[in-house]
Amino acid sequence: MRFEQVAFSFNGGKDSTVLLHLLRAGYYLHKEKINYSNGNQPDCMLKCPIRTIYFECPCAFPEINSFTYETAAAYDLQLEIMRSDFKSGLESLLKEKPIKAIFLGTRIGDPNAVGQEQFSPSSTGWPPFMRVNPILDWSYRDVWAFILTCKVKYCSLYDQGYTSIGSIYDTVPNALLSTADSSSTKENFKPAYMLSDGRLERAGRAKKISSKCESTHVLSNGMDNTGAHRSSFLTASIIAVGDEILFGTAEDQIGATLCQKLYATGWQVAHIAVVQNDVDSVAEEVEQRKSRDDIVFLFGGLGPLHSDVSVAGVAKAFGVCLAPDEEFEESLRHLIGDHCTGDHNELALLPEGITELLHHETLPVPLIKCRNVIIFAATNICELETQWECLLELSNTPLVQMAPFISKHLSTMLSDIETAQVISKLRMDFPDIYIGCHRKSRAGPLIISFVGKNKIRVELAAEKLSRRFHAGAFCEFSCD
Ligand SMILES: Cc1cc2nc3c(=O)[nH]c(=O)nc-3n(C[C@H](O)[C@H](O)[C@H](O)COP(=O)(O)O)c2cc1C
Ligand SMILES: Nc1ncnc2c1ncn2[C@@H]1O[C@H](COP(=O)(O)OP(=O)(O)OP(=O)(O)O)[C@@H](O)[C@H]1O
Ligand SMILES: [Mg+2]
User: Fold this and answer.
1) Which residue, by CA, sits nearest to atom 6 of ligand 2?
2) I need a surface site. Which of 53, 282, 341, 374 has the fewest CB within 10 A?
């Protein structure tokens, strides 16, 4: 195979960094052989001008991006920058270039490694090429042993506790490398090579509800006209604090209403949780969600009772103390007047240094915002309606209105067995569209939902499904 028929898929991650240096070594040996047969001395082949494919995504970490560009420049890699989704990017690249094989840093244990071997033809539906996975059977330990022994440069994020790197939306440092003790306010992390159990390599990766990154690839491919990739797929989570909900004595209606409101505002709700009225339970949940989602809403557990621990939980999640907030105290004084004696108003204790009060003329007390966590004081849907409206009306609202979701629902009496495979395949063809199924009874019809931000794509996905079965197998269904 000619040199220009092979390509290297490089994304600045640790696995592809290992592969880069293996390829350089191979290239050196290959050149050396040619040089010897020509009677020349081998020159110092540090460079490796291999065709290098990089799918640049707006949701990549800047450190990953700059490392990729710097490395490409350092080793003379011939970069092919792609700004579309993997599949269509490869389709157009393979039309233009004589690529027959692509080297990847895929390892056993990666979610996409299932069923792959060292040489695996691309999947059906993908353009034809050979996927070459030289480090498929390398362990996490092998990767770091290679990088450290060869003293090669790697992306700086790995020194900050990241052990596997996806997008800025789904990746945080690996908590198993945290050095924080309860007294320190800032969490530090050991470098990635200190992780002793490689099976936990992906512990810092969030489970995807829908792939924001892939969605934005599609968006930046011109299929959506909203322009702003980031504002199209922001996620929210909702935390209800309430023992009464967990005991089953009260029903959480606020959470469900918030889901509807967020959906109508174009936000994707990634998670909804109910936790106990207990500082650690609140802190644990907030800590996880604040770094995974763009915004976190919390309600319940607010007030002067022993069970009102939400504010303390939020403070603990951010590793800060509670301190008297004069501005909040003033608002409370207006509300409860003489019933509070200034200095001892525990209700005015708020997380120190991270709290912003959101004032609105309709609200007797401002809403509390701690970084990306918003605390609603609502105890029923009516109060939520008011607070929600106020939040939206604020000039500096954190709740920007985004491109709305468009949905289509089809109902069918076809069985799961008949539809399952086709729907799975469809999900791969439409990574930008959420395709989900539910039914209201075991024997009743199956409802298939298509949700996305691009009407044409939603319609197309639904139409593609209908066309795979006999006419009349599906009918449109309203979920309202
Ligand atoms: C060069 C290249 C070739 C790929 N070939 C295939 C393929 O043949 N079949 C497939 O299902 N996915 C293929 N993928 C997609 C990967 O399996 C996987 O989705 C991708 O590496 C992103 O991983 P992530 O979703 O964990 O971020 C390919 C990706 C790249 C970069
Ligand atoms: N955006 C991308 N552009 C080019 N190749 C990519 C891209 N994303 C993934 N790949 C290919 O898929 C391989 C597997 O990706 P994966 O994210 O698991 O490994 P990595 O990024 O190298 O390391 P890490 O697990 O630390 O993130 C990469 O080594 C690379 O060959
Ligand atoms: Mg990666």
Assistant:
1) 11
2) 341
Map residue 139 onto helix, strand or coil: coil
Residues 65, 66, 69, 72: what is their CA dihedral angle, to the nearest 10 degrees?
A: -110
The one-character DSSP state at 106 is: -
Q: Residue 128 pLDDT > 70, yes or no?
A: yes
Distance, in Å, from the CA atom of 234 to the CA atom of 297, rounded to the nearest integer, reads 14
Ligand 1, pocket residues at CB < 6 Å: 9, 53, 55, 86, 102, 104, 111-112, 122-123, 126, 131, 166
Q: Residue 229 corresponds to which tokens in the numbers above?
A: 């990739």
What are the φ and ψ backbone dihedral angles of 80, each rounded to 5 degrees? -115, 105
Centre of ligand 2 to C-alpha 179, Å, is 27
Average pLDDT over residues 343-371: 88
Three-state secondary-structure class, residue 406: strand
Q: What is the pLDDT of residue 347?
A: 82
- Tokens in use for 37? 């047969």
- Tell how far the Cα of 112 is from the centroid of ligand 1, in angstroms: 7
Task: Please indicate whether residue 182 or residue 273 has the higher confidence score (pLDDT).
Answer: 273
- Tell me if 358 sits within 8 A of 394, measured CB to CB: yes
> How far apart (Å, rounded) are the C-alpha atoms in residues 302 and 408?
39
Helix residue spans in 337-478 (DSSP H): 381-393, 416-429, 455-467
For the chain, helix, strand, coil in percent to 5 are 40, 20, 40
Distance CA 249, CA 327 (A): 36
Q: Are 379 and 355 in contact (CB under 8 A)?
A: no
In the reported structure, the alpha carbon of residue 132 is separated from the centroid of ligand 1 by a whole-number distance in angstroms of 12
E-assigned strands of 325-429?
A: 349-351, 355-358, 367-370, 373-376, 406-412
List phi, psi (to 5°) of 467.
Answer: -70, -20
Its pTM surpasses 0.80: no
pLDDT tens, position by position, 164-175: 999 887 788 888
Looking at residue 36, its pLDDT comes to 56
Closest by CA to 327, choosing from 378, 279, 293, 367, is 367
Q: Whose CA is nearest to atom 4 of ligand 2?
A: 54
pLDDT of residue 34: 61
CA-CA distance, 355 to 374, in Å (whole number)? 10
Q: What is the mean pLDDT of residues 104-129?
A: 91
**Res 393: pLDDT:** 93
- Confidence band, pLDDT 50/70/90 cuts, at residue 33: low
**What are the two backbone dihedrals, phi and then psi, of residue 446, each rounded to the nearest 5 degrees?**
-95, 135
Per residue in 308-318, pLDDT (tens digit) is: 999 999 999 99
